[in-house]
């Protein structure tokens, strides 16, 4: 959009090292909690500091500014997609549809399923993973015909899923169609073609985005307790654990962090991209810009909110470490 970039910074606060290239100052700053791009005419520390030059952010139309602001979070989603694409090229391990434990008196137990049975298909649809099987059971209507591989022989078993109480990824109690089995923990490599690799990357990016959007919503609504929020210590710890598990786990976590940044930056909090988008939408609809006083007060409130969340995350991290 022709806006001059004054600073590209990794980290906040006092700069540790910097250099100038292509008319921009590139720096590494002291506080390693993300980073920022400082555009001419846009300064969160002083919202009244504007410029009327042609290469200034403030001289662009609201739509142009919204386009600029959306580009940052979009880059996070694109990066996540690229990482998931690389993961897919590396043939990631997935859980095989091999049964571990069969719960007593469950539909699986009554139908005669046993440990180490491999579920090859359901209602004639071949299964590639435990996830595919779980999805088919959850979305099923009526009886299911399972093709089972047991001790080298193929058997067919018919059963009907039962609605059962369980917990989801947010530790909420939900009701879901289940048959009463758990995984044996057997894995296999997912071999994907070019189109399947693109599909995998797209589905994983959408799944991660939806999960984080939902998580933020549940956190705001109180469905997920605030103690579940983590900060920089959690990120470091999970990164270390992922490193121990191998490069594939590190990439999965990096993609999740990238999606996380994209989602959080879209929140309508002043000082984040979402907050600035909110101001520009107001200007686009009303044909008026918010007053200088409103901008300053909302920006300060936004920073207070952000540092409050950072503080809460850090407090939770320390509490978890101590316990």
Structural commentary:
The protein has about 325 residues and is α+β, with helices and mostly antiparallel strands. It has three domains: about 1-60, no CATH class; about 60-90 and about 190-323, no CATH class; about 95-190, PDZ domain (Pdz3 Domain, Roll), CATH 2.30.42. Helix content is about 45%, strand content about 25%. It has eight helices and twelve strands. It has a four-stranded antiparallel sheet. A hairpin with a 2-residue loop joins strand 1 and strand 2. Helix 1 packs across helix 4 and helix 5 (about 230-245) runs antiparallel to helix 6 (about 245-265). The radius of gyration is 25 Å and the shape is elongated. The termini are far apart.
What is the total tally of β strands?
Answer: 12
User: What is the tally of helical segments?
Assistant: 8
The rough form would be described as: elongated
Give the N-terminus to C-terminus distance in angstroms.
Answer: 51 Å
Indicate the mean pLDDT: 86
CA-atom Rg in angstroms: 25 Å
The computed structural class is alpha+beta
């Amino acid at each position: 959009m022709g806006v001059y970039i004054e600073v590209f910074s990794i980290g906040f606060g006092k700069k540790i090292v910097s250099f100038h290239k292509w008319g921009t100052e590139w720096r590494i700053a002291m506080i390693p909690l993300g980073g920022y791009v400082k555009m001419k005419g846009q300064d969160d520390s002083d919202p009244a500091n504007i410029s009327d030059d042609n290469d200034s952010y403030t001289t662009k139309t609201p739509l142009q500014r919204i386009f600029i602001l959306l580009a940052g979070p979009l880059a996070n989603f694109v990066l996540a997609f690229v990482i998931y694409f690389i993961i897919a090229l590396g043939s990631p391990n997935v859980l095989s549809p091999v049964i571990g434990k069969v719960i007593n008196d469950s539909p699986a137990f009554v139908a005669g399923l046993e440990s180490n049975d491999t579920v090859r298909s359901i209602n004639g649809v071949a299964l590639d993973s435990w996830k595919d099987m779980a999805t088919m059971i959850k979305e099923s209507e009526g009886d299911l015909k399972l093709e089972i591989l047991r001790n080298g022989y193929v058997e067919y078993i018919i059963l009907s899923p039962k609605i059962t109480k369980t917990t989801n990824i947010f530790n909420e109690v939900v009701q879901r169609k289940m048959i009463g089995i758990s995984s044996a923990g057997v894995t296999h490599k997912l071999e994907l073609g070019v189109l399947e690799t693109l599909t995998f990357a797209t589905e994983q990016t959408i799944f991660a985005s939806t999960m984080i959007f939902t998580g933020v919503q549940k956190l705001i609504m109180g469905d997920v307790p605030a103690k579940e929020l983590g900060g920089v210590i959690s990120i470091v710890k999970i990164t270390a654990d992922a490193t121990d598990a191998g490069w594939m786990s590190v990439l999965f976590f990096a993609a999740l962090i990238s999606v996380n940044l994209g989602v959080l930056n879209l929140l309508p909090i002043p000082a984040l991209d979402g907050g600035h988008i909110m101001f520009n939408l107001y200007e686009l609809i009303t044909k008026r810009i918010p007053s200088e006083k409103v901008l300053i007060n909302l920006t300060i409130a936004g920073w207070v909110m952000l540092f409050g969340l950072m503080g809460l995350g850090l407090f939770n991290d320390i509490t978890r470490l101590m316990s």
